[in-house]
Design goal:
Layout (H helix, E strand, L loop, with lengths): L8 H21 L4 E7 L5 E8 L3 E5 L12 E11 L3 E10 L2 E5 L2 E6 L10 E7 L2 E11 L4 E9 L2 E6 L5 E2 L4
Antiparallel strand pairs: 1-2, 1-4, 3-10, 4-9, 4-12, 5-8, 5-10, 6-7, 6-9, 10-11
């Protein structure tokens, strides 16, 4: 019929790919925060969702972290840079349900990659860092039930119990 636009399957795929590309580019425009990738499976089997996070403190409860992520049996990876204001010893604390790993410049600072309930005190780690950007990777998985992650740090001019967040986390160094 005249006036009706019909899309063929190939055109729909191209349109979806363009929209996906625009979304991915928009995520990279703002350098603040960390890039987060969500995966099916607890061992990063299949990437299914992406976003930017301005802080590393999330309470998923029993909900899925993103639309295509299953409610149980998923993993996530936060990547970017930690911007350290001055050279000092820094303490890190990760509270999670379930497993968590924190690496700075590829050095494991916290490695509790196992099923465990939420711990109020968190898992500690300490590292001496120079001023400036440091590669940061945080990994988390959920087996079943509740899921949450909260990473805090302190040291130098950073007060105790500070959530790992902007302006100290960026997708790329300055």
């Amino acid at each position: 019929r005249p006036g009706i636009v019909r899309f063929w399957p190939v055109e729909l795929l191209v349109l979806a790919a363009v929209a996906f590309g625009i979304i991915c580019m928009a995520m990279q425009i703002d350098p603040d925060g960390l890039s987060v990738t969500y995966f099916r499976g607890q061992s990063f089997e299949q990437a299914v969702a992406w976003r930017t996070s301005k802080l590393v403190s999330v309470q998923y409860g029993k909900d899925r972290p993103a639309w295509f992520v299953p409610r149980n049996g998923w993993s996530a990876r936060w990547q970017g840079y930690l911007i350290v204001p001055e050279e000092a010893d820094y303490d890190f604390y990760a509270r999670s349900d379930d497993g968590v790993r924190l690496l700075i410049d590829d050095v494991p600072v916290i490695d509790e990659w196992r099923v465990h309930p939420w711990r109020k005190r968190g898992f500690p780690g300490r590292l001496r860092l120079s001023a400036g950007p440091h590669k940061l990777v945080i990994e988390h998985f959920d087996e079943t039930g509740m899921a949450a992650l909260d990473v805090r740090w302190a040291g130098g001019v950073i007060p105790k119990d500070t959530i790992l967040a902007v302006p100290y986390v960026r997708k790329r160094p300055r």
